[in-house]
Amino acid sequence: MHAGLLALTQAALLDQLDRDDAAHALRSLVNQVARQLGTPCGLLALGPDGRQRWTAGTLPDAAVRPGTPLLDRHEAFVEDGFCWMPLWRLGQPLGAWLMPVQPGLELGPRAKQLQPVLSAAASLLLRDATGSELRRGGSHGELIRAALRGAGTFVWEWDIATDRLGDLDQGFAQLGYPLPEGGSTQSDWDRLIHPEDREANHGAYLRHAHGQAAVYEHSYRARAADGQWRWIQERGRIIEWNAEGQPQRMVGIQTDVTDRRAAEAAAEAAMSRLVKIAAHVPGLLFQFQWRADGHGSFPYVSERCEALLGVPAAALVADAAAMLRRIDFADRGVMLDSIRDSARRMAPWQLKFRVHRRDKALRWIRGSATPQLGPEGSVVWHGYFEDATEALTIEQAQQDRAGAEAANRAKTEFLSRMSHELRTPLNAVLGFAQLMEVDTSQPLAEDQRRRVGLIRESGEHLLAMINDLLDLTSIEAGRVTLQPEPVLLDPLIEDCLAMVRAGAQRDDVSLLHDPATGLGLHADRKRLRQVLLNLLSNAIKYNRRGGQVRVQAAAREAGWLLLEVRDTGVGLTETEIAQLFQPFNRLSQARSTIEGSGIGLAVTHALVALMGGRIEVQSTPGRGSSFSVLLPDA
Q1: Alpha carbon distance 323, 313 (integer Å)
Q2: 145: Cβ contacts below 8 Å, ≥ 6 apart
Q3: CA–CA separation, 397 and 400 (whole Å)
Q4: What residue spans in the chain does CATH classification 3.30.565.10 cover?
Q5: Residue 32 pLDDT
Q6: Which CATH number, 3.40.50.150, 3.30.420.40, 3.30.565.10, 3.40.120.10, labels domain 484-632?
């Protein structure tokens, strides 16, 4: 059944080519498919606005009206007892093929079975929708021929059995001859071909006719009316065979490529000039050819060959393997593999390899080249070799630095993993310490309670350090994901102040808040709270008894919001401000009795940067500090 549908599809396409009437071909196709399948079939043609243009097939017209518009339907669907298969081409809905739904028949297999028919129907519908425009300017074939003539090319058709050559008048006109009188055979045309090119031209045809080449393609010289020899390039294909398997009809195109040949000659002259210029280039210019049989050669190398590779230019042109023998043995296989890969993918070739010169020096060579298809399936590279020994020394230093950075990342990953591992036993220690403090069945003596309290406080301090370290390593490793949401700043500030108020009261520090009603932004609420809590905790911790911490939010410059924490504490010097956000650096407080790890501000700085903001610090030693967090308001 598949073969029968394919034959009907091919017949419809040939009918279109013969009649140039897509609608007729479609009506014939839908009726013949219905007979082939033994079931009614219908076809609906749509206009650009999605409305019905015409219908065809063996179904009643009333059935060929979908209840659901087809403009957005791509897959087959069932409606009112019919299977609808939308037809699209070039992103445009053109219509639909429909058939009655049969019990137990799935849409997928039915659509797959009809795929050749559906594809042909969509193409013919597109042709039918645009056919009126084409017909106003001539037939489709005429338009193609006119376009080709404008590009200096014409279409020919050869009846091989009778040697009749169609459209030969265009070929004569291309060479400047008047229209032929009666002479319109291939033999007539062959008389214009240069005697030295006739045999090769016929050989190209025979290779195609015998199946050795997919198409006939050849370039030859033909005498023009002015006596000059013009270069003609032909390309064609046999499209019909008789019952005995002999070629019957052939079509092709013919182009005058004389100007292109002249351009190639000019390119050869340019190559001659290039040779003279290349003698003064520090590196080596080359052309390398890789034939289909795997044989490589250097058609051209510049005179710097011996100085760079230790091989005379003439020796390398005569024997490409002379270069391979100079390449370090460990790099030879890599060299050959890279050439094959570039030829296979037609991708630019680049490689660094070592060469042993005649003076025993081992030098690094960097090569780069661009491939292009050459004659008879070969690949040709045009490229450049240069001595990269010094440059690679610098590159090695950069790689060493990258290795150090990788080691730092490994350290970060190690710290992150260790932080996770430490938290589990530490939480157990804290949990047991808290249970011992509140155990009423076996109450602790006062000294014991004080010691257990020290254990708990030290554990909580250590846990806070581990949490900060975990946050810092997560940020450095890029594992922190923000979840932005609308955040009102005043409620957030009040929430954070409530969380640090007990510590502030213990240290006799006043907390002040200047409200900014309705001011908000789009940010990660959890991370923004963490930033504010860190700043508030530091402002309290490094303040003086009877001091103050003031928090305020305000609109700053265009597009930015300000969140400021000011304290009346010990303050910072300019040198300390410059080192403030370095992890584990507690500055002058490292020798104080105030607990801290030097991680909190580093985490705060990293989180603000992650949210697209920045921190500004102003401080006066002995008078206090001001930390301003600037965040985008969108």
Answers
A1: 10
A2: 154, 155
A3: 5
A4: 484-632
A5: 87
A6: 3.30.565.10
Of the CATH numbers 1.10.287, 3.90.320, 3.30.300, 1.10.150, which one belongs to the domain with range 394-476?
A: 1.10.287
- The model's pTM: 0.37
**C-alpha span between 186 and 170 (Å, rounded):** 14
Cβ contacts of 346 within 8 Å, gap of 6 or more: 371, 372, 373, 379
d(CA 318, CA 304): 16
CATH number listed for the domain at residues 2-136: 3.30.450.40
* Backbone dihedral angles phi then psi of residue 113, each to the nearest 5 degrees: -60, -35
Check: CATH 3.30.450.20 for 262-387? yes
Evaluate whether 123 touches 220 at the Cβ level (below 8 Å). Answer: no
Buried-exposed string 525-538: b where 16+ CB fall within 10 A, e elsewhere: eebbbbbbbbbbbb
592: left (phi over 0), alpha (psi -120 to 50) or beta: beta
pLDDT at 180: 64
Contact 599, 487 (CB under 8 A): no
d(CA 460, CA 437): 15
Contact 631, 523 (CB under 8 A): yes
Strands, sheet with 82-89, edge to edge from the N-terminal-most edge strand: 52-57, 42-46, 92-100, 82-89, 77-79
Q: For the chain, where do the domains classified as CATH 3.30.450.40 start and end?
A: 2-136
Q: Cα Rg for the chain, rounded, in angstroms?
A: 42
Exposed, middle or buried, 52 (CB in 10 Å: 0-12/13-18/19+)? middle
Other CB atoms within a 10 A radius of the CB of residue 481 amount to 8
The half-sphere exposure of 454 on its side-chain side, counting CA atoms within 13 A, is: 5
Residue pLDDT, tens place only, 289-322: 998 888 899 998 887 888 888 888 889 999 998 8
Domain 140-256 has CATH 3.30.450.20: yes
Question: Which three-class secondary structure state does DSSP give residue 488?
Answer: strand
* Residues 62-67, mean pLDDT to the nearest whole number: 75
Q: Where in the chain is the domain with CATH 3.30.450.20?
A: 140-256, 262-387
Q: Using an 8 Å Cβ cutoff, are 283 and 364 in contact?
A: no
Residue 372: beta bridge partners? 380
User: Hey, is 92 helix, strand or coil?
Assistant: strand
Q: Which of 316, 289, 318 is nearest to 301 (CA)?
A: 316
Give the 3-state secondary structure of residue 370.
strand
List helix spans (H) across 439-513. Answer: 446-476, 489-506
CB 100 within 8 A of CB 81: yes
- Ranking 135-149, 533-547, 551-565 by mean pLDDT, the lowest is 135-149
Q: Is 617 exposed, middle or buried (0-12, 13-18, 19+ CB in 10 A)?
A: middle
